[in-house]
Design a protein that fits this description.
Elements lengths: L6 H8 L4 H34 L13 H51 L2 H5 L3 H43 L1 H8 L1 H39 L1 H6 L3 H53 L5 H15 L5 H23 L19 E9 L5 E10 L4 E6 L5 H8 L7 E6 L2 E2 L5 H6 L1 E4 L10 H5 L8 H10 L3 H5 L18 H15 L3 E5 L7 H14 L4 E5 L11 E6 L2 E6 L1 H7 L2 H10 L3
Parallel strand pairs: 3-8, 3-9, 6-7, 7-8
Antiparallel strand pairs: 1-2, 1-4, 4-5, 9-10
Helix pairs in contact: 1-11, 2-3, 2-5, 2-10, 3-5, 3-11, 5-6, 5-7, 5-10, 5-11, 6-9, 7-9, 7-11, 9-10, 9-11, 15-17
Amino acid sequence: MSSKNHPLFRLLKYSKNYQTQISIATIATILNTIFDLAPSYLIGVAVDIVVLKEDSFIAQWGFTNTITQLAILSLITLLVWSLESLSEFIYERLWRNLAQTLQHELRFDAYSHLQELELSYFEERSTGTLLSILNDDINQLERFLDSGAESIIRFITTIIFVGGSFILIAPQVAWLAILPIPFILWGSLAFQKRLAPLYADVRDKAGLINTRLANNISGIATIKSFTAEIYEQSRVKNESEAYRRSNRSAIALSSVFIPAIRLIIVMGFIATLFFGGVAVSQNQLTVGTYGFMVFIVQYLLWPFATLSELMDQYQRAMASIRRVMGLLDTPIRIHSGNKTFSTPIKGEISIVNVNFAYDNGVKVLKNLSMDIRAKSNIGIVGATGSGKSTLVKLLLRFYEIDHGEITIDGVNIQELYLHDLRKAIAWVSQDVFLFHGTVAENIAYGNFDATLTEIIQAAKLAECDDFIQQLPQGYDTIVGERGQKLSGGQRQRIAIARGILKNPPILILDEATSAVDNETEAAIQKSLQVITKDRTTIAIAHRLSTIRNCDRIYVMDKGQIVEQGKHEELLALEGIYHSLWAVQSGIN
């Protein structure tokens, strides 16, 4: 991996707008570490004052009186502690605010980028994995910035400052304390190299368990109806056990590190204690310097005992950053055009020689052509898998066509702003999705400034006002996640009301009445005469009764149009449409 692609480099590049804040926080952390180490130096000076008196370090400033020297040392101590408290306040506030800010912005940017990706991206990935990236991984990064970054800076500062002091004050003994450090660093690098793939696996296993839990919670009714509780408990247990085993491997490696490091550290401490004492006895070191060295050596070596914890935090954060940046690096395959509709949209649609295949390579549409006049009402029928819904998704540019052209009012849809294209179309899908919120909020979704009067009018046209009025809080009733408090027919009618309220020049009804009863369907059909007036309407249906009055009906089979015409004309052909009508109408 090149340095430019390293997760830490990517994070620094992402946070370039906060370099000043990072720099100040880093400087404050370094100063706080130095001030935190100062008492060890001050203790050494105090011992020298008491033992050496007029020959002490402070005496060289011209203050030979012992009481005066101690008073000066006390003032210095007070100043150091005050500066330590101030620097801690600064770096704590800056690091924590930075952690929260980057967490917020990274989650927002990742989600925004996710929204721009094509539907096939979501079809190839589980919701749980994506939620794991947006929540767990970004939260892991927040925890690292909140405490891990500061700890690493303090560790490096301590080693440099204390090690430098040893070399300056007592070079003849310093090498004994410093000798273990290269071995510790070598072990740490080897530890890091082995730990990185283990934590990458941990993050992957976290995504899998999140996927399992998300799927099971969404499908709880199916689990209960098929009495599959024990089976699903077993699957969750297996996924959770896999996550536990993955963590166990990382924990096993990190747990070995601390005892090994302690053995090396204690050797350096003993060497300093023994050989430093020998140097004092031979008048090569002062008592104050020796006291300082014995006391401070733990600051030099013991931080290495926490190195595994720091590496643990670091590797967890790097694994999370790698996944988040991987999401942000995912290329957007469907790009917006730069044209807008220059005049009010008429709704004339032209589909010319369109070919399309999903990623599996199987062609769904083959040289399909269709001309839809503005403000006309057309129907599309065909067997499941014939390409009806795919055609609608291509019109909305959820997918990109492989070959051919689709235009609206003569403008290629690939040249239009995606916002303008989709704003011009209301799509009422058979797979209705309602958001957790009130009935009114769901009807007004996409038209957020709609008044209650407009919402009710749309509901009446969709034949759902009556049942809404009977709900406990009427239009303020919470529908539950995915609208689970409502029946399938009720959800479909709310979706139709949502499409009506959008008031687009093009309306697509994709099996929009498949879940309603015959009486409601008949009522909706009457309303559709008002709804479809002065707008282009495309109705996809299995029930031929819902499209029999369309201006033109297209029959699709295996990605091609095999029949077209009015209802009576198609019956006269005695082809596929005639067969479907015979089955549905009970004609032998």
